[in-house]
Amino acid sequence: MAKILLVEDNELNRDMLSRRLVRRGFEIVSAVDGEEGIARAGGDRPDLVLLDLNLPVVDGLEVARRLRAADETRGIPIIALSAHALSDDRERALQAGCDDFDTKPVDLPRLLGKIEAALGRSRGAERP
């Protein structure tokens, strides 16, 4: 079972997405701001991070940069989530180190496809 770190400050979004992903067989750990997200990523070692870009304390772009800079979190796939659907937001997320980008409200089948693709790439990279 893959472990996903959900970094989302909105309680309703966090609860809804967590419940839907748990029903799909994922283990979910969560963080409510960017600073907690960085700490949980290093401590919980998730298989993937779902990262809201608009976070308090440390914004999502900076979280992605810090996760990519740290040895223990560098290889964890990151999917950015944003209510903004501008191509500029997607590009900024990818430049900050995110592997993919999706918009809110979440389209679960589309997001699940992105999660599976990112996990598949990550697992493939770990093989000798």
Task: Describe the protein in words.
With 128 residues, this protein is an alpha/beta fold. It has one domain: 3-Layer(aba) Sandwich (Rossmann fold), CATH 3.40.50.2300. Helices cover 49% and strands 19% of the residues. The protein has five helices and five strands. It has helices spanning 11-23, 34-44, 60-69, 87-96, 108-126, and strands at 3-7, 27-31, 48-52, 78-82, 100-103. A five-stranded parallel beta sheet has the order 2-1-3-4-5, with helices on both faces. Helix 2 packs parallel to helix 3 (60-69). The longest helix is centred in the C-terminal third of the chain and has 19 residues, at 108-126. It is globular and about 30 Å long. 31% of the residues are buried. The model has no long low-confidence stretch (mean pLDDT 93).
Quick one: overall form? Answer: globular
Number of domains: 1
CATH class: Alpha Beta
**Which structural category do the helix and sheet elements fall into?**
alpha/beta
- Radius of gyration (CA) equals 13 Å
The total strand number stands at 5
The helix tally amounts to 5
Q: Give the CATH H-level superfamily.
A: Response regulator
* Oligomeric state of shown chains: single chain
- Percentage of helical residues? 40-55%
Q: What share of the residues does DSSP label as strand, in percent? A: 15-25%
Give the H and E element order.
Answer: EHEHEHEHEH
**In the CATH classification, which architecture applies?**
3-Layer(aba) Sandwich
**Uncertain segments:** none
CATH topology, which one?
Answer: Rossmann fold
Overall mean pLDDT = 93
